Predict the 3D structure of the following.
Amino acid sequence: MSKAFLMLGLAASALTLAACNRNPLLVKRSQCPAVAIPTFVGSVTQFDPPQSRDASAIALTAQISDVSATCIESAEYLTTDVSFTVTAQRRHAGPAKEVYLPLFVAMAQGGNVLVSKQLTGVMLKFEEGQLRAEARGGARADVHRSAVALPADVQERISRERRPEDIDALVDPLSDPQVRAAVRAASFEILVGFQMDDASLAYNVGK
C-alpha cells in the first residue's frame, strides 16, 4: 500500500459535528479519531492460478465490515480501540482450511498526511464442507491530546452557544477557511484495509 494511494483513498474525516439534544444551535466537536475503510481496500480477491483475472479463477473473496471504535480518554491521550469483522467465501466447499489475510491499520492527520501504519491480519478457518468463514480483528491507536487541541479562538467559535436572534445563528463555523484549516490540522482518522500487492489493488480499482 503506497502512501500516495492511502492519502487519495481517505474515506472519512475525523471531524464530527453534532447538534446538542437540548440546544440545536450548540455545535459539538469530537476529538476522538474517526474510523473508516479507505476506497478500494475494503475487499480482496484471490485467484487460482494467481496470475489469472478470470471470474472462473476466483478462489476466495473477503470483505471488511462492522468497523467500530471505542474512544478512551485520559489526561494525556485519546486511545481508540478498533474492531472489525472479516468475512470470506471460497469457491469450493472442500476440506477444512485456514487462510491468513494481512491487513493494515493506519493513522492519518488532516485527511492527507500519513502519521503511522501497522500491519496486522486475521486467520480465517473454513470448516470442512463450508463455503464461508468469519473472523474478528482489532487494533489500538493513541493520539496525544495536544495534537487534537484547537486554538482557543477557533474552539470558542465552534463550541459557543448560538441564540436564535444571533445574526450568525445558522452560519456554519466551518464556512470560514481559517476555522476549517485549524480543524483539519487537529483531526485524525484511523483507517482499516487489506494489505495487498499492486496487482490486487489494480483489480479492485478496475472493478
